[in-house]
Amino acid sequence: MVMGSAEIVLQGLSMSTPCIVSSRYSVKWGRKMGYVRIVEQLNLSKVQQRRTGFLRNQFPCCQRQGAESVSGVTAEDGNGAWFVGVEKKLNTTNGANVLENEKEDLDQVAEDSIEDEAWNLLRASVVYYCGSPIGTIAANDPTSSNVLNYDQVFIRDFIPSGVAFLLKGEYDIVRNFILYTLQLQSWEKTMDCHSPGQGLMPASFKVRTVPLEGDDNATEEVLDPDFGEAAIGRVAPVDSGLWWIILLRAYGKCTGDTSVQERIDVQTGIKMILRLCLADGFDMFPTLLVTDGSCMIDRRMGIHGHPLEIQALFYSALLCAREMLTPEDGSTDLIRALNNRLVALSYHIREYYWVDMKKLNEIYRYKTEEYSYDAVNKFNIYPDQVSPWLVEWMPNKGGYLIGNLQPAHMDFRFFALGNLWSIVSGLATREQSHAILDLIEARWLDLVADMPFKICYPALEGQEWRIITGSDPKNTPWSYHNAGAWPTLLWQLAIACIKMNRPDIAAKAIKVAEKRLSTDKWPEYYDSKRARFIGKQAHLHQTWSVAGYLVAKLLLKNPNLAKILTQEEDQELVNAFYCMIDNNPRRKRGRKPSNQTYIV
What pLDDT score was predicted for residue 373? Predict the structure, then answer.
């Protein structure tokens, strides 16, 4: 039989029925049946020589062609297509091993094709301003005619895209994004005659083409930011400025170029964000007080107050800012306030947000209405708040940081981003970080199941859903922000696992995601308890779903790169933390001596 360059013929072990497959497709082994599954865009250069040798030994049709050609390519070429389909294992042990190796190779090729597709989608989402790349749009869904604001560049959505480009060595788009969004920070922002603080960063912006002033025949491009005036619910984005600082540090770490963060305008921008966050108010707690919908969960979901996600990003941004601020007389007071806040914030979160089985039992036995400086139940939490679901759900080994803490209220829901970023930033202790990952492993079917990762758990249902969300038709139980599964959280999971030297957890989650993400056209989120449905209102080709997957893959291939985003515990902060614990009447711990004085 003569084989053309466009196709090859492989025969089964019986050599009775030839299988003809186009050379632009690959074959992936079925686990239960000897079927052939077609996967596009095959590149087998890494294993070409070993495969060619196997074909010559096992298949006469390939052996007759000799070394000259396998699908028209020699063994030395490194580029070609190789296909095989069999229903029974080889009788020899050596043959079985070879088949298993070939299956692994083909699996790797399929993964590479998914990555190639993801990079194509990410680059197709890039937005240009005056000829320069400046960001990526939220979604590029070819099936949706109602784009809403998904054609805009969101600050929080661009973070995984920016990190992906940094890891790929494409720095210009990140640098442009940082500097142009900084310019938007100083724009006038008003809603109903009221203007928020100067340090507020926009939620998103769009590049618009408008007529040039004074010349109707000419046009110019302008940036049109949204600080929340046009957003659903009219909520200002508290997390935008925090993510901007985190990305600025990552840019400097990855490129080695500190000139951007040392610019006067950038230093001024950092200080404006810090002053806005560190401003005095009525609150007694070191945590940031925010309204509902001011972060990734940007709809009414009962997270108003002191949500964990904002506190984790706040802590991370404070550490990043302290690292990047240039020493000068005018910033001394700001740095002192920053350090004091870091100590108080880390103590507050680690001590009062943490729950495990031991802490739950302690809360269950709380006495209430304690009026004393030495009260154990400082926030007057009622033991009946410990829900039956939590008693059954909490594993013996593991724990997590609760979603919110206010007087007489603990939100026991597990919020993924807040917990994962607490690991990344070092807000959680090393022991707590491992316990969070232990819980994820123990409750894998609840938090990952058929698609990583649940944005929160469990869902609000019934009367609770009606009261807290206002009967939001988009946040129905197990959908969207109400315990939907968001693939973009893969990158935060990967960083947290790498930092704790447990990358196998992230690798397992990525394997789950790869089964569906590409086939499902990269949805924004998934619905149902096990994440089996594409979200009922999910946009396809969602950019941060694409970027989150890419960042996770890149970091697992080169774990050292995770250091551009992770932060280790500061020893002075650790010492100060134990100083505060020593003064806590509930518990006594030993500590390393510290000569530093902290004002809290």
Answer: 84
